[in-house]
Specification:
- The protein is mainly alpha-helical.
- It has 17 helices and 5 strands.
- The strands form 2 sheets. It has a 3-stranded antiparallel β-sheet.
- A hairpin with a 6-residue loop joins strand 4 and strand 5.
- Helix 6 packs across helix 8, helix 8 packs parallel to helix 9 and helix 14 runs antiparallel to helix 15.
Length: 516
C-alpha cells in the first residue's frame, strides 16, 4: 500500500461535514406514488401563505429563477435571513421526521427541475442561490454568514462541476479521472469521498480510510467491512498457498494488501497519536483482521486486543505505541525470513540456524527488557502513588485531630460566652430593679418637696402680712401721739388754722390705714 497518497484536508469544520440526506428506494417510491402526500408536504413546507411581496421555500424550489430573483431584491434582509434560517433548521434535524420529509420533498423538487442550469442560475439572487445549493447538496455551510464563496463557485457546486466539500473544492472529475464512478456519479470527488457511501470527512493519517494502490480512490474502512470489500486473498509475496487480508477497490476492482498498509500508517503516524486516537486505531485494526486465518494477521489481531485492554487499564500511549511498532517490525522480519526460507528450499546450516535463533532470542530478550523496564517504571510509579496516598492520609488525620481540638476549644468558648451572657442578663435585671426603686424614691421625694414648698410660701406670706400690720399699727400709734402732742401744744393758735391742720392730719391717717 502506498501510504504517500494522503488526502490533503484542512482542519475539521462541523459546518462543512457531509450531512446531506439521501432518498432511499422506499422513500422514492413513496414520494412518487402518493400524490396526496406530496400535497401535504407542499402545504407544510409553505409554512405561511405567500403574499404579494413575500414567498416561501416552496416558491424558491419550484418557481422560475428570474421571477423569484426580482421579488427577492424588493424584500428586506431580515426576511431573507429568516428563509435561510428555516433551511438550516431542516438540515439540523431538530424538527424530527416530518421536517426531514419536508426537506426531502424540497430536494426532490429541486433535483427534478431541468431549467436549473448554469445559464439560468447566473440570474439568481445571492440568497436564492445559497438556498438552492444548500437544498441540493444538503450542506448547511452554504447558508452561513461566514461562507464567502463566489457566485460562480456556487453555481459549479450546484451543477456538479465542483466538489461540494468546502475544504476540497476540486474541479470535477478530480484529477481528470474518467473511471466509471467518477464519470457516472454526480458530484463525486475521488480525492475526499468514499467510493461506497459518497460521504466525506476530514480524517487523515488514519486506518479508518483505505486508499487503493492502483487508482488512488478512497474508501471508509467501516464501509469496506460492511460491504464485504475486505477479505482473504492469495499473498503476492509468498505465492500460492498463503492467504492474507486484502482490500478490493470498487472503483477499479483491484486488490491491495492490508498488513503493509497498517504497518506504514502506524510507523508514520502512531508516535503523534494521543491515547484516544491510538485506542480507536487499534480497534479498527482489530476489526480488519478479526476474521483472518493468516498466522501473521491473527497475531496482529491478538496483539491489538491485548493493547486495547492495556490502554483501558491505564498503560501510557507511548508505551503501547512502542510495543505495537516493535511487534509489527518483528512480524515483518519473521515474514521476510519465512519467505527467504521458502524460496531457497534448502537446509539451513547449524551455525546459521544458531545465529538466527540467537538473534530471535536477543530480540525477545530486548522486548522482555522493554516490558520489564515498563513494569518497573509502573511499579515505581505505583509505589510513589501509594506513598503519596499515605502522606495524604497522615495529613488528613492530623487535620482531623486539629479540627476536633479546635471544635472542643470552640465549644468551651461558647459555654464561657453563654455563662457570661447569663451573668450579664442577671446584672441587667438587678440594675433594672434598682433603677425602678430609685425612680419610685425620686417620685416620693418630689411629692414631699412640692408639699413643703407650698407650705413655706403660705407661712412666709402670713408672717410678712403680720409684720406689715404691726408696722402700720406702730406708725398709726406714732401719728396719734404726734397729733395729740400737737393738739396740746397749739391750743393757743387760731381755731380756723387748728381746724384745717387737724382735718389734713386726719385725712393722711385714713390714707395710711387704707394702704395697710
Amino acid at each position: 500500500m502506498n501510504f504517500d497518497q494522503n488526502r490533503e484536508s484542512p482542519a475539521e469544520s462541523a459546518t462543512s461535514r457531509d450531512t446531506w440526506p439521501v432518498i432511499d428506494a422506499a422513500t422514492q417510491v413513496k414520494l412518487e406514488n402518493q400524490k396526496a402526500e406530496d400535497g401535504y408536504y407542499e402545504q407544510s413546507v409553505t409554512h405561511r401563505p405567500a403574499s404579494a411581496n413575500k414567498f416561501s421555500l416552496l416558491d424558491i424550489a419550484r418557481e422560475q429563477v428570474d421571477i423569484i430573483s426580482e421579488r427577492m431584491y424588493l424584500l428586506p434582509n431580515e426576511y431573507l435571513e429568516e428563509l435561510k434560517g428555516r433551511v438550516r433548521g431542516m438540515l439540523e434535524g431538530n424538527g424530527g421526521s416530518q421536517q426531514r420529509d419536508e426537506f426531502l420533498f424540497l430536494q426532490r423538487l429541486v433535483q427534478s427541475r431541468s431549467d436549473l442550469t448554469a445559464k439560468t442560475l447566473v440570474k439568481a439572487h445571492r440568497v436564492q442561490l445559497e438556498i438552492l445549493v444548500a437544498i441540493n447538496s444538503g450542506i448547511q455551510f452554504f447558508l452561513h454568514q461566514s461562507m464567502n464563496l463566489s457566485q460562480t463557485v456556487l453555481i459549479e457546486v450546484f451543477v456538479y462541476k465542483r466538489c461540494r466539500n468546502i475544504a476540497c473544492q476540486s474541479q470535477l472529475p478530480a484529477e481528470n479521472c474518467h473511471c466509471e464512478i467518477c464519470t457516472n456519479r454526480k458530484g463525486f470527488c475521488s480525492l475526499c469521498m468514499c467510493v461506497i457511501c459518497n460521504k466525506f470527512d476530514f480524517e487523515v493519517n488514519t486506518c479508518r480510510w483505505i486508499g487503493c494502490d492502483s487508482c488512488a480512490h478512497w474508501t471508509h474502512t467501516d464501509c469496506a467491512i460492511r460491504d464485504k470489500q475486505i477479505g482473504t486473498g492469495p499473498s503476492r509475496v509468498n505465492g500460492l498457498g498463503s492467504a492474507e487480508m486484502q482490500f478490493r477497490c470498487r472503483a477499479c476492482n483491484r486488490t491491495s494488501e492490508l498488513f503493509g498498509w497498517v504497518k506504514d500508517v502506524f510507523q508514520q503516524c502512531a508516535p503523534t497519536w494521543d491515547r484516544e486516537t491510538l485506542l480507536r486505531e487499534l480497534t479498527v485494526v482489530s476489526k480488519i483482521f478479526r476474521l483472518s486465518e493468516n498466522t501473521r494477521a491473527r497475531q496482529l489481531f491478538w496483539k491489538s486486543e491485548e493493547l486495547i485492554e492495556k490502554l483501558k487499564a491505564g498503560v501510557e500511549e507511548t508505551t503501547a505505541c512502542r510495543i505495537i511498532l516493535t511487534f509489527l517490525q518483528e512480524l515483518e522480519m519473521d515474514s521476510s525470513k519465512s519467505s527467504e526460507a521458502g524460496n531457497n528450499g534448502r537446509m539451513i546450516p547449524p551455525q546459521e540456524a544458531c545465529n538466527r535463533i540467537a538473534q530471535v532470542v536477543q530480540e525477545a530478550v530486548q522486548t522482555m527488557e522493554i516490558v520489564a523496564d515498563e513494569k518497573m517504571r509502573m511499579l515505581k510509579k505505583a509505589r510513589q502513588a501509594l506513598e503519596t496516598c499515605d502522606h495524604e492520609l497522615e495529613d488528613k488525620a492530623k487535620k482531623v485531630a486539629e479540627l476536633k481540638l479546635e471544635r472542643q476549644q470552640k465549644r468551651l468558648q461558647i459555654d464561657e460566652l453563654e455563662s457570661i451572657s447569663r451573668l450579664k442578663e442577671a446584672e441587667a435585671d438587678m440594675f433594672q430593679l434598682k433603677a425602678d426603686e430609685a425612680r419610685r424614691e425620686a417620685d416620693r421625694l418630689q411629692r414631699i418637696a412640692l408639699a413643703k414648698s407650698g407650705k413655706s410660701e403660705e407661712d412666709y406670706a402670713s408672717s410678712y402680712l403680720k409684720q406689715r400690720l404691726s408696722e402700720a399699727e406702730a406708725e398709726k400709734q406714732f401719728l396719734f401721739e404726734k397729733i395729740k402732742l400737737q393738739d396740746q401744744g397749739s391750743r393757743s393758735s387760731k381755731s380756723n388754722d387748728i381746724g384745717d391742720t387737724s382735718q389734713e392730719l386726719y385725712t393722711k391717717i385714713q390714707e395710711i390705714l387704707k394702704s395697710v
